[in-house]
Amino acid sequence: MSESESSVRKRLPWLIPIVLFLGGVVFVWALDFGIKVTNTLEFCTSCHTMQTNFEEYKESRHYKNRSGVQATCADCHVPKVLGPKLVTKFVAAKDVYHEIMGTIDTPEKFEARRWYLANLVWKRMEASDSRECRSCHDYGDMDLSEQNRSARSRHAAAQDKGQTCIECHKGVVHQLPTEPETSAP
Question: pLDDT tens for residues 68-124?
Fold first, then answer.
């Protein structure tokens, strides 16, 4: 064995962990960059079918309000915690797939599936106890005395019953979809 081969073999055990570490750093950076880009309002509304949702959102208090605080798509639809965030991003890839495959690539096709899609979101929100809603709206942070009588009563009752936000607040940002008629057997 030559002296140069021996030198390479001695350095190889040190080189592998360094390359793996640098590869890991690049992977984490790329993942973080991808998540940040796909969490922007511009990305979310870039598909033709999302234009209807965007117009509805622009009419809501989450877009424009007296305090100037704006909740974007990611604030309501993407968890803050890394594990659930990655799961959500992975599951959301199906929306891109369906856009590309033509399942929801027009407003008409999207509307035809809107009830089904909304129910998927509502079930996910119920399962997480409206986790994304609660990052801004939490019972413990509500000053019920500042709410009107109806809201004060309903929020107090909902808290006592352990209800989650989405049980009462469907259609706050997006219009409620029309439930499809069930066909007779």
Answer: 889 999 999 999 999 999 999 998 888 889 888 988 888 889 889 999 999 999 999
Q: Rounded distance, CA 110 to CA 108, Å?
A: 5
Annotated binding site for heme: 44, 47, 50, 73, 76-77, 95, 133, 136-137, 165, 168-169, 174
- Tell whether the model's pLDDT for residue 65 goes beyond 60: yes
Spatial contact of 166 and 122, defined as CB atoms under 8 Å apart = yes
Tokens of 48: 């033709």
Q: Which residues are annotated as a binding site for a menaquinol?
A: 95
For residues 52 and 112, what is the distance between their CA atoms, to the nearest angstrom?
A: 13
Q: Which two tokens stand for residue 137?
A: 């709206």
Kindly tell me the sign of the dihedral angle through the C-alpha atoms of 129, 134, 139, 144. Answer: negative
The pLDDT tens digits for 151-167 are: 999 999 999 999 999 99
Stated pTM of the model: 0.78
> Nearest CA to 44 among 70, 71, 74, 64?
74
Are 169 and 50 contacting, i.e. CB atoms less than 8 angstroms apart?
no
* In contact, 166 and 172? CB cutoff 8 Å: no
Annotated binding site: 44, 47, 50, 73, 76-77, 95, 133, 136-137, 165, 168-169, 174
